[in-house]
Specification:
This protein is an all-alpha fold and about 240 residues long. It folds into two domains: about 70 residues, no CATH class; about 150 residues, no CATH class. The longest helix has about 35 residues.
Length: about 240
């Protein structure tokens, strides 16, 4: 057990760096690891010398850099609830932007310019959907790689629930709009608009298929990383 000693600048810089690299770890676990690391380095430095700067530099050299130690701690204890919560919020936000809300508007209008504008809007909505879908998968996979397979599963599940919930809301809204257009605009163009703004069965199946893929994406990413770490540790055996 280490005695009370004054702060050493080399040790304090190391601990500050380690604490920052453990930012996502839960507070209680992080404090425990920081205290244990500090006590270990203090004891090691005083075993090496008199606890001066050179002794602490040598102790840190033997123990490992802050980056190496932080990586070991995170691999062993995970990132904590703070990291999971942030990843869930990010995945849900991005997932909410992935569905092509208004990409089915028919190119109607008296002027060709108006029809071209609607076609451009449809194209932009489609591109937007693809871009945000890719970003959502990136966040889910990142969560699995950093936080582990169960964190990846939680984040992927949150994205799936978000997309499914919003899809239901939009389908209800599209149906109401379709009914309104059909009732108020008794014309051929009105009927076409009512039919075109709703999502088809094929579109819904495609959206749900992509949504389902989000659930296992982070899980398998975390599982693959765990397997890779075992191979590195045991030399592929």
């Amino acid at each position: 057990m280490s005695k009370e000693r004054g702060p050493n600048p080399v040790l304090e810089r190391y601990m500050k760096d380690l604490k920052w690299k453990l930012f996502w770890m839960s507070g209680t676990k992080k404090k425990l690891l920081i205290d244990e690391t500090r006590a270990h380095l203090e004891d090691l430095a005083h075993d090496i010398g008199k606890g001066d700067d050179k002794a602490f530099e040598e102790a840190i050299k033997r123990f490992g850099t802050a980056k190496q130690i932080a990586r070991q701690y995170k691999h062993r204890y995970g990132y904590g609830k703070k990291f999971t919560a942030v990843m869930v919020v990010m995945a849900m936000f991005l997932a909410a932007l992935t569905l092509p809300i208004i990409s089915n508007i028919p190119p109607i209008g008296e002027k060709e310019k108006d029809r071209n504008n609607i076609e451009t809007l449809n194209t932009c909505c489609g591109v937007n959907s693809v871009v945000f879908t890719i970003l959502t998968f990136v966040v889910i996979i990142f969560a699995g790689l950093k936080g582990g397979k169960w964190v990846g599963l939680i984040v992927g599940g949150a994205a799936f629930i978000t997309r499914s919930f919003i899809l239901i809301l939009w389908q209800v809204a599209f149906t109401l709009i379709s009914n309104f257009v059909t009732e108020k605009l008794q014309s051929a163009s009105g009927m076409n608009l009512a039919l075109d703004i709703t999502l088809s069965g094929g579109q819904i199946c495609g959206i749900m298929f992509i949504s389902l893929l989000m659930i296992p994406a982070g899980f398998f990413a975390g599982r693959a990383l765990k397997k890779l770490r075992k191979e590195e540790l045991f030399g592929g055996k």
